[in-house]
Design brief:
alpha/beta, Aspartate Aminotransferase, domain 1, seven-stranded mixed sheet, three-stranded antiparallel sheet, about 45% helix, pyridoxal phosphate binding, PyrdxlP-dep_Trfase_small
Length: about 400
């Protein structure tokens, strides 16, 4: 008779152990209270630099963003109060969505309270039993969860391998009514990008819909920070669904869907994650809207981020560190041989005032642990040189020329 785990606590303990609890027995780099850590370091005359936060353009603490949030709090209060469909909207909702649509060059935008929820609810809502979803194997967990929640059939293609995608479509496209292709623009674990012009050509030739997750590329890619479409010269009208987040360059939280107006109107009345959830808090809308103003006004921030990321990857390569397929924009990983080595490197950096949590087992394959660096326009050159020098001198050296990642959650 098979052994049964009798309690949820026993089950959770077992799953936690399998997820890598042993790595954390001597040093736990997670759930660090970064604001307290920074204050403590400053009080003792030490430095604290985070490469773990995706405030790509350094806007989260901008005085105008804080002032806008405070103003909205005083005028509207804190909460959204209800579902926008059945409880009515705040004026801040429509104003921000129109402004964001104009920035992205799309017809319409719909905002939601969670970036993760945006992918889950959108993909599961769009695709039904006679449909199929073809998704990159390294897609973010929110995309994968959305595909699992859908009644449609899912097919994974090798990471950024559009030849493989084409071969799958050639074999299987005619078996389905509707087909959705789902990719990220700038991949959050590897820092590489999809070949969007070719992907658009494939989706048109095989009569598919295309969803592009621009969570890490808005404010990062393109001369004006408009994302992968601007970076690659693709008309946003050729993308059926663009999803994104407000938690990165918009210095806030929540998600958004950008699409043609008929699509957005349909989702506004039917999308479960929108209809059955509250809208953005006025405080959030005001902060994100002001951040968008700053992005468009302070274009030097985009160039500074680009400079910092390119410097980081240049110095890393000079030091013999493996950055995988990263193109040198907002996200750059340093790959290691095993989880223990990765944790040791993270601990070494933290002891010198650099916060870079390790990533292993959850989010990446077991054989591809890494330190993932989020670069920001607010990082100084001395911060970047300092952290690379520490890694280069660390006794547990990262592996060189590791194979590309082949699977992830």
């Amino acid at each position: 008779m098979a052994h049964r785990i009798n309690s949820l606590a026993d089950y959770a303990t077992k799953r936690f152990r399998l997820a890598g609890k042993a790595y954390l027995e001597e040093y736990n780099p997670f759930f660090v209270q970064t604001d307290s850590a920074r204050q403590e370091a400053q009080a003792h005359g030490r430095n604290f630099v985070s490469f773990a936060n995706y405030d790509y353009l350094g806007i989260s603490g901008h005085p105008a963003v804080k002032a806008a949030a405070i103003g909205a709090l005083e005028e509207f209060g804190v909460g959204a109060l209800a579902s926008r469909l059945v409880g009515g909207e705040r004026s801040t909702h429509h104003l921000f969505e129109e402004k964001l649509a104009a920035f992205l060059g799309v017809e319409s935008v719909l905002t939601l309270v969670s970036g993760y929820l945006t992918n889950v609810t959108t993909i599961s809502h769009m695709m039904n039993t006679r449909d199929a979803i073809f998704l990159d194997e390294l897609s973010h967990n929110s995309i994968i969860s959305g595909a699992k929640a859908a009644a449609a059939t899912s097919h994974f293609f090798h990471h950024n391998d559009l030849d493989h995608l084409e071969s799958l479509l050639a074999q299987k496209r005619d078996s389905y009514r509707h087909v959705l292709l789902a990719v990220e623009s700038l991949y959050s674990m590897d820092g590489d990008i999809v070949d969007l012009p070719r992907l658009v050509e494939i989706k048109e030739r095989y009569n598919c819909w295309l969803l592009v997750d621009e969570a890490h590329s808005i404010g990062v890619l393109g001369q004006d920070g408009r994302g992968l479409c601007e970076h690659t010269g693709v008309d946003p009208a050729q993308i059926d669904i663009i999803v994104g987040t407000l938690s990165k360059t918009f210095a806030s939280c929540g998600g958004f869907i950008a699409a043609k107006k008929p699509v957005a109107d349909w989702l506004r009345y039917t999308l479960p994650g929108f209809v059955f959830s509250v809208g953005l808090s006025p405080v959030i809308s005001a902060a994100a809207s002001t951040a968008l103003d700053i992005i468009q006004k302070d274009t030097w921030r985009i160039e500074k981020l680009r400079h910092n990321a390119e410097l980081f990857i240049e110095l890393a390569h000079e030091a013999g560190l493996d950055t995988g397929p990263a193109i040198g924009r907002g996200v750059v990983p340093i790959l290691f041989a095993d989880g223990l080595e990765t944790v040791a490197a993270s601990r070494h950096l933290m002891s010198h005032g650099y916060y870079v949590p390790p990533i292993f087992q959850i989010g990446v394959p077991k054989n591809q642990p890494r330190l993932r660096f989020f670069l920001s326009a607010s990082h100084r050159e001395e911060d970047i040189r300092g952290v690379i020098n520490l890694l280069a001198r660390h006794p547990a050296q990262p592996v060189v020329a590791a194979e590309p990642v082949s699977a992830a959650t």
